[in-house]
Amino acid sequence: MTPTDRDLLQRYARDGSQAAFAELVARHLNLVYSAAQRQVRSPTLAEEIAQSVFLDLSRQPAALNPGTPLVAWLHVVTRRTAIDVIRRESRRRAREQAACPELVEWAAAALTDSAMKPTSSAWTEVEPLLDEAVDTLAPADRSAILLRFFENKSLRDIGAVLGTSEDTAQKRVTRAVEQLRTFFLRRGIALTAAGL
Q1: Of 11, 75, 108, 155, which one has the fewest beta carbons inside 10 Å?
Q2: Are 149 and 176 in contact (CB under 8 A)?
Q3: Are 144 and 161 in contact (CB under 8 A)?
Q4: 62: which DSSP letter?
């Protein structure tokens, strides 16, 4: 039987098992990296954020509330870390702009002349807001969405992780998708529940 995230985390906290921690990283690295990438839009910064998130987990494995699925904790910490990195990068850019305004003007002109044009797909509108939208959900609904669509878990697996039935897991996922759709509608992005 495959050990659960909780089993691996307990083994790491209790015994310092590097293998258990490596398994947790392997399971959740894509989730953390993709959430960071959506927010900072830089592969280098996304890697930095992912390293920071797993470093936080390694430093305080027992700090995770027993009722919280690891995937939900990772998502919240990734979002907070990304916000910190965005603020840091914004301050850095402001300092650079103050130090060398001519370079900034040249770079802006080069970007304007660039042949790159943004795409108009719904995903380009949704992507930068997705993690903010997920963050607005109630904790159980957030966990259900993250497990279902970010971790590709079945409704039965989601119910097991959340300590509920498969039907309750389905209701949580459906309700959360509808709340996400409403979130995007308020921002002028019309999506169907199926499209979301």
Answers
A1: 108
A2: no
A3: no
A4: G
* CB 143 within 8 Å of CB 71: yes
Amino acid at 49: I
Can you tell me the distance from the alpha carbon of 191 to that of 182, in angstroms, rounded to the nearest whole number? 9
Encoded tokens for 72: 């939900």
Model pTM score? 0.70
Coil, strand, or helix at residue 195? coil
Quickly list H helices, the chain: 5-15, 18-40, 43-59, 70-99, 101-113, 122-135, 139-145, 155-162, 166-186
Backbone angles phi, psi at 188, to 5 degrees: 80, 15
* Distance (Å, whole) CA 40 – CA 72: 19
Nearest to 71 by CA among 153, 2, 13, 129: 153
Tokens 């039965």 appear where?
Answer: 156
Question: Residue 101 gets which letter from DSSP?
Answer: H
Low-confidence ranges of the chain (pLDDT < 50): 102-104, 106-120
Contact between 138 and 153 under an 8 Å Cβ cutoff? The reply is no
CA atoms within 13 A on the CB side of 184: 23
Instruction: Quick: pLDDT tens for 114-145.
Output: 333 334 466 777 777 888 889 999 999 999 99
The conformation of residue 149, written as its DSSP 8-state character, comes to I
